[in-house]
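# step 3/5: fold
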Amino acid sequence: MKDAPLLSTARLRDRRRRCANRNGFSGWRIVVFAALGLAMTAPGQTVGVSVFVDPMLADLEVTRSQLSGAYLVGTLLGALTLPVTGRALDRFGVRALMTVVGAAFGLALAAMAGVAGVITLALGFTGIRMLGQGALSLVSTTSVALWFNRRRGLALGLCTAVGAALMSLAPVGLTRVIHAVGWQATWVLAAAAVWLIVLPIARLGMHDDPASIGQQVDGVQPQPGASQEAEGWTRAEALRTPMFWAITLAVAVSGMIGTGLMFHQISLLGEHGLTPVQAAANFLPQTAATITATLAMGWLVDRLRPGCSCPPPCWVWRLP
């Protein structure tokens, strides 16, 4: 009797494997599901939070500086948890972690409806930044990288582009909902949307990696005698390269500037006569530029990657 649960689990896994393999390589379906997961981070991204700023300032006894400071604290604290999220992803896999993150992100969004001051704002922002902008984004993009090697740039470019395109619709939609039912109810509705979309994707659409359902990276059987080891560097090797820190700094600076502009975009454009909906619609052309750049860079990454895949110091100078 003790073996019955194990047998049931084994049968379930075998059934999932047969269903997945019946439709061929699952990597491109993972790209679609990951893009949807990335899009659902919108309420935790600055592009989504920005439309709540003025309505919350009108009802809460906080200044714009205090609200911005709470957002800064929440963003920094949320970012500090990402290494832990990465280790959990390596240990428990995509399906389990996306399920947990999706459920927790929904709870954090719902809790935003009850914020009442600077402290609760900082706590709420920490939750949605940590789980939405951070953890759910990390899980979604990493899930794609696990399925591709030769076409990883294209796959990640498509995932990011589709996710960004869908995300750009969030400001307009959220603004209209806020006008209809208020900002508190809109946070709750955003939580419900995350639960209804992310949780089914995690449990029914995602797979931990190709091997979990008997498939291969890129959907191609390896050549006889070819190395089965995955390309890449260890964490210690990556941390010793100046290129890692240069890329990290570039991402940090661009994110800091972009976040500051987007967070106050609705208010700044409102001062120039635009309605909240018109101001939110300005995210659409910004997203068009993002999509173009993302697809172009994804295409280039696949074609201009270094000719040697061995670890440093083969082609990147190491720190002493």
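# step 4/5: annotate
Residues 64 and 266 are 13 Å apart (CA to CA).
# step 5/5: archive (pending)
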